[in-house]
Amino acid sequence: KAGVTQTPRYLIKTRGQQVTLSCSPISGHRSVSWYQQTPGQGLQFLFEYFSETQRNKGNFPGRFSGRQFSNSRSEMNVSTLELGDSALYLCASSLELARAEQFFGPGTRLTVL
Amino acid sequence: GEDVEQSLFLSVREGDSSVINCTYTDSSSTYLYWYKQEPGAGLQLLTYIFSNMDMKQDQRLTVLLNKKDKHLSLRIADTQTGDSAIYFCAESSRGGADGLTFGKGTHLIIQP
Prior knowledge:
The structure holds 2 protein chains of 2 kinds.
Chain A: E1 5-7, E2 10-13, E3 19-24, E4 31-38, E5 42-50, E6 53-57, E7 64-68, E8 74-78, E9 87-94, E10 103-104, E11 108-112
Parallel strand pairs in A: 2-11
Antiparallel strand pairs in A: 1-3, 3-8, 4-5, 4-9, 5-6, 7-8, 9-10, 9-11
Chain B: E1 4-6, E2 9-13, E3 18-24, E4 31-37, E5 43-50, E6 55-58, E7 61-66, E8 71-76, E9 85-92, E10 100-102, E11 106-111
């Protein structure tokens, strides 16, 4: 069974631009969560989607948004990029909401110049 | 807010056991996790424990949970060079409503 896939793996943008990242969960998994990883703040929860609806949200500004499609694939969007948005963005999938096993993808490394 | 604490570094000799410790504050945590991250990679789920258990063993890995002290540990038996990585402890805060709360990670260094 294929794991969680994320595209693109690397991305370079400039301040003020916007970016869209994609995550395909493990086949059959319906919940997708997004996390931001930085050296200073560590791993922080962004949001979780289930059945095309945002179910939970972390403490991030409204510039960070996401959506989930009917096939459970998810995208996250960051508008008006800031230097501090440079990070590894990880997505995790699980069968259902609040299920124990959450499997992470390899991440998308975003660099904002 | 809720917090998860881990020491930043642990150095062990190859073949010895490694014990990585973690403390957490959220008494409502449902599950507690250990993830492994190698350079340039995502997070690999190693094991998890339900909050009403006190021990779980899976091959070389043993997880101990002391719920009273909010202390979690991961023991890796017969540590190998391939175990060199960052190990993250995490809890499912408020039953998962706040996603997973992670510690800063423990760098496991293996000495030959």
